[in-house]
Amino acid sequence: HNAQRLALRGDLLDFRAAPAWGQLDPGSALRFQPDHWLLIENGRILGTQAEAPDASWQQIDHSGRLILPGFIDTHVHCPQLDVIASYGAELLDWLNTYTFPAECRYADPAVARLGAERFLDALLAHGTTAAVVFATVHKVSADALFEAAQSRGMRLITGKVMMDRNAPAALLDADLAQSERDCVDLISRWHGRGRLSYAVTPRFAPTSTPAQLAMAGALCRADLSLYMQTHVAENRAEVAWVSELFPDARSYLDVYAREGLLHPRAVLAHGVWLDDADRAVLADSGAQIAFSPSSNLFLGSGLFDWVAAKEAGVAVSVASDVGGGTSLSMQRNLLDGYKVQALAGQRLSAWSGLYAATRGAAEALGLADELGHFGAGTLADVCVWDWAIGPVAKARDEVARGLHERVFAWMGLSDDRNLHSAYVAGVQKFSRSNSR
Ligand code: GUN
Ligand code: ZN
User: Fold this and answer.
1) Distance 163 CA to ligand 1 centre (A)
2) Residues in domain Amidohydrolase-related (predicted)?
């Protein structure tokens, strides 16, 4: 028969379940199979084994390298690669000074297309094989992302941004009817096609009228398979502004709750300034928080309380939030996440961090049957990493005692330079030798 059979040899690391918080002995949640073969047949994972497979398999020997499920970045902005690392502003100034002008350029279909391709290739070059992405307000920017993801075979969740106030005129929907028509048309053409899903995308409460938020909620209610993405309670000035704009809401989160925007397929970025009542509402709804540590530090937004979210039963994934965030590297963001926990007297283990960036995100998105781990039948979104690059990381790797110490040092010292290759549904989409 003509099955495509690919076997990768290396140190396989993935998760069967959520590891216990703070525990360095991961028990059965972790599946570490050093020097094993990962078998991929017709783009799907068939299984793992210690011995080499027979000659019907194409064999690639990465022994001495780390093989992980591709990372899932649950909140990142395609058009904002152009404003990453912009100096000196908190959220609301940063949006007006850098971000909105950059997003205006995506009205041009050529800019949107090139931007989408460059962006997805950049994700792949950082070991991120699936993502939940903000396009811009322009319909063409969402089309461009869906097309570019489709041609790469990537799992992508995105949508056109909805804004109808408090932003430059060039970035506002003309009216409610046009905003809804654009969403409905994009949903009908892309949602559920291959690995693509649509996310209803009101940018954040200040840039939508109550009528637009209500329309977004109605879209979600009409099709429960749709995702929803937005921002919530990121920055103190933003929170104060929302309480002025929505005086009847109990809290910032309540603005979304009242419109039916909180559901199991909702992804809310940040959630730095939530209270216990908000966390209870989130847990009840099944919505997840996309913790964006490098962004929260860079924009001076605040310190997200992961432990409070966890104890309330809220799902938490990890996100780069580029261009507010300063790197697409999930390792860099996990290290920033570790530092945020450290400031609160907490510790983020390598297990909890890597789980959140792989299987945890897949579970929270309802996609764990498709990706995020090496379970049989999932699509083979797989990345091959060098354990250490350069003298400092190499020396550190050599003296590491025990698996957690070694993997934690990898999480702390590695980044996109460590990526050797990335596979999407079993097809190599990035290779270091090709790109250098
Ligand atoms: N809140 C509303 N829009 C944005 C954005 O583009 N980035 C961040 N970090 N927060 C936002
Ligand atoms: Zn964001």
Assistant:
1) 12
2) 67-427
CATH no. for residue 118? Answer: 3.20.20.140
Whether the pTM exceeds 0.95: the reply is yes
Task: Output the CA torsion sign for 173, 177, 183, 189.
Answer: negative
Instruction: Decide: 350 in ligand 1 pocket, CB within 6 A.
Output: no
Q: Is the CB of 77 under 6 A from ligand 1?
A: yes
Looking at this predicted complex, what is its ipTM?
0.99
Q: Which atom of ligand 1 is nearest to the CA of 299?
A: 9
231 lines ligand 1 (CB under 6 A): yes
pLDDT for 388: 98
Distance 157 CA to ligand 1 centre (A): 17
Question: Which residues of the chain register pLDDT less than 50?
Answer: 436
Is 337 inside a domain boundary? no
Q: Give the burial class of 219: count Cβ atoms within 10 A of its Cβ; 0-12 exposed, 13-18 middle, 19 or more buried.
A: buried
Please say whether the beta carbons of 171 and 108 come within 8 A.
no
Beta carbons within 10 angstroms of residue 172's beta carbon: 16
Number of folded domains that form the chain: 2
Shared domain check, 100 and 54:
no
Does ligand 1 lie within 6 Å of residue 349's CB atom?
Answer: no
Ligand 1 lined by 332 (C-beta under 6 Å): no
Is residue 336 in a domain?
Answer: no
- 145 and 48 both lie in a single domain: no
Residues 54 and 114 in one domain: no
Whether residues 316 and 275 fall in one domain: yes
**In-domain check, residue 346:** no
- Could you tell me if 269 and 229 are in contact, meaning their C-beta atoms sit under 8 angstroms apart? yes
Residues 295, 183 share a domain: yes
Check residue 436 and give its pLDDT. 41
Same domain, residue pair 94 and 57:
no
> Which ligand places an atom closest to the C-alpha of 294?
1
pLDDT of residue 2: 77
CA angle 274, 280, 282 (to 5 degrees): 75
Longest alpha-carbon distance in the chain? 68
Q: Let me know: does 410 contact 333? Beta carbons within 8 Å.
A: no
Q: Which two tokens stand for residue 160?
A: 């056109």
The atom of ligand 1 lying closest to the CA of 238 is 1
For residue 24, the CA-to-ligand 2 centroid distance in Å is: 31
Whose CA is closest to 70, among 127, 154, 150, 119?
127
Ion ligand 2, residues whose Cβ is below 5 A away: 269, 321
Clarify whether residues 304 and 383 are in a common domain.
no
